[in-house]
Amino acid sequence: MDDRAAVAAQLERQPRSPINVVARCPLGIPVVIDVPPHLDDGTPFPTTYWLTCPLASRRIARIESAGGVKAAERRLEADPDLTGRHETTMTRYAMQRDARVDESRDRPRPSGGVAGAVAGVKCLHAHYADYAAGNDNVVGEWTAAEIEPLDCSIACVAAAERTVVRNPQWHEPKRGARQGPRLAAVDIGTNTVRLLVADSFADRLEEVARHVAITRLGQEVDGTGVLHADAVERTLRVLRVFGTIMDELAVGRRRAVATSAVRDANNAGEFLDAAAAALGVRPEVIDGAAEARLSFLGAIRGIRDPAPDGDSILVIDIGGGSTEFVVGIKEPVYTASVDIGSVRFTERHLGVSPPTAEMITSGRLHVADLFESELELPPIGRVIGVAGTYTTLAAAYLGLAEYDRAAVDGTVLTGEDLQAMVEQLATLTVDQIAEIPSMDPDRAPVILGGAMIAEQALAASGRTRLTVSESDVLDGIALSICYL
Description:
Blueprint: H1 3-11, E1 20-24, E2 30-34, E3 49-51, H2 54-65, H3 68-77, H4 80-98, H5 124-132, H6 138-147, E4 157-160, E5 163-166, E6 183-188, E7 192-201, E8 204-214, H7 221-224, H8 229-248, E9 253-258, H9 260-264, H10 268-279, E10 284-285, H11 288-301, E11 313-318, E12 323-328, E13 332-338, H12 342-349, H13 357-374, E14 382-386, H14 388-398, H15 405-408, E15 412-414, H16 415-425, H17 430-434, H18 444-461, E16 465-469, H19 473-483
Parallel strand pairs: 6-9, 9-10, 11-14, 14-16
Antiparallel strand pairs: 1-2, 2-3, 4-5, 6-7, 7-8, 11-12, 12-13, 15-16
């Protein structure tokens, strides 16, 4: 099959310059072509390596439409070494292309690095094409991990009457059949209850639905030792809705987990009975160590190459009643659960809004002393912050007009950022905090307490920055169902 004709069929137009195929799929069809720095009509063309494979193009387009370019840029910003590697790629790309410019002809020159970009990522298609052509390109490498293998069983193009056309029999291959029945995970926390419905595949969980509601189940538990009747009713109303959703989505396997507030309550049994009727499965009351392990499992799922240099990572999960610390690489090697969370801390230390300066000072000292006395963290190379406190703070830090999971995921917060947010929130009333555009008003009463814990938790780690992940204990619960 003629390569130029095959590429024309893939692109559904004739190439506008000479081409050279530099990467092929297992069926021998072009995937990436090398293009000169000027098209036939003299137009400068900054993209040396052009992606032609329809399968790769479709998969990358979905990643880009889900915020993949911004996500890649955030990953680069979070790691100076990766930033340097990316900058080297951009320089190398420009130099290789410019070395091929015909200096004897007076015409505009192409500029920029990959896809003509001066900085940033701009186009995952172009980065993947550069990587597939055999070059070092960290963004292309990340993209390849998402879209490969290019496992078509039928060629995307076919010969027809001395030409080549798109093959009408070609279709995008499914990336593995669903394994087992549809599953659902429910996290019943001190401040928040959440539902995740997903399909399980060999290499991933595919989200079907995700719901969250702040019910403050742990209201006054720290002082009374029992679940408040109003908090129980608020939570059960939401759990009944979750049960209906799971029924409507034909969920086959369910797991519900209850954490700090239910652990601490003397009247938990009645609540669990009612929750079982609402959900179709009885919630398991897990201890802090089990909660930490599930948080780690979920957080690792959301991070590619979480410890590329073999260094352990620390996952910090701030809940309403407790804060979990777990260290590991692929499996936890250290876990700790400290009985301080955003709800518990607020009820103990922040009695007025806005709080006094003395409350802030004493609250910070209390949390710092608590972590110092209860934690014996091993050496770590990276810190991941998960759950609602960190994600809410990240959204506020980014100045989002409304909460955006894709934008929040991967945000880097430094100790100075957290300190500044504590000091800013401490000047506001709860009503003023609720007016922050990305803030869930129901989280406003406890976010300052959560921020103070977040600040001191990072300080206790000995690191100066952390990465916020949207994957947490809820995702860990869902993954655990696959292993049961």
